[in-house]
Amino acid sequence: MFYQGTQxxxxxxxxxxxxxxxxxxxxxxxxxxxxxxxREKGVPKDQAKHSIIIVxxxxxxxxxxxxxxxxxxxxxxxxxxxxxxxxxxDELGIYILQYDRAGYGESDPNPKRSLKSEALDIEELxxxxxxxxxxxxxxxxxxxxxxxxxxxxxPNRLAGVAMIAPVINYLWPSFPExxxxxxxxxxxxxxxxxxxxxxxxxxxxxxxxxWLPSNSVIEKNPAFFNKRDIDILETIPGFPMLTKNKxxxxxxFDTLRGDWMVAFGNWEFDPLKLSNPFxxxxxxxxxxxxxxxxxxxxxxxxxxxxxxxxxxYHEVPDGGHLIVHYSGLxxxxxxxxxxxxxxxxxxxxxxxxxx
Length: 355
Hints:
This protein is α/β, with parallel strands linked by helices. It has one domain: 3-Layer(aba) Sandwich (Rossmann fold). It has helices at 75-92, 115-128, 144-153, 177-180, 184-198, 200-207, 215-219, 227-233, 244-247, 250-264, 298-307, 329-339; strands at 27-29, 35-42, 50-55, 94-99, 135-140, 158-164, 285-290, 311-316. The chain has an 8-stranded mixed sheet, sandwiched between helices. The longest helix is centred in the N-terminal third of the chain and has 18 residues, at 75-92. The chain is globular and about 50 Å long. The two termini are 28 Å apart. Residues 1-17 have low confidence and may be disordered.
């Protein structure tokens, strides 16, 4: 269950100068003295019609692939692909801000990480970079708990939100026991939380042992990924942040452990009782889910959107957990979020909704 982060791109020299000297990414200093690293894409922010902050998932970073091709392309096809994406970005006037959450990448750790601190980091980052009084938010996988937190703590700053395969916390009090009682994922999370809380040293020893399966074995495990996910994993770098070498770095292990405990611990609020932050219908909220997701169960995701009818639900029929990498999905997400356009390919079948 540690393996629900989105992937990082392979190492390259994009962060190096012409003479090969590494160039540090830009960072901003927060009120508490910590630094957050970030990267900007799209049109210049002072010319943007839409400013979007993307929140990466577990084990990922600001370099996660969003709007990237799902597989290697030859140079001519790649140029055409990038031209198409540039046309979309320019046409809609999109500015994209991606950042390393506390302790990830080049951002400083936050020993006081909490649901609220994640939301306040996003708000302060937006203010320091002066991207406007309102911005869109896209949360990916476990990064979506920061999105839920923003809906609770800073809803007035949000122009709209989208969550892609968002995390499910089985401790949310509004879940009926009958819905989650037999879910094996609930038990796995419960045991991992117990070890992370009471025996962190034992957990550290366990996840760094040589006899445990490598990432390559886990990435092909049908217990975590469906067939389409496994095909995707053949063409993307996998989970470099979760290798044993990385996990042996204490700061990496502590960051992942703290992130996990906040995501699956006791929350200060119940997301299923949140009020609609966009009552005038000028903005919108969306959840994008793979029907065959083996990390986050689609039937529970559908229950969430039934309880919160102001969230629009989109479902990839043959999708697993890695839908953010599926061809065309990011474009559909942007058009739904910014323009209100619905792609009928992702409309869930009526009969799959639970009563």
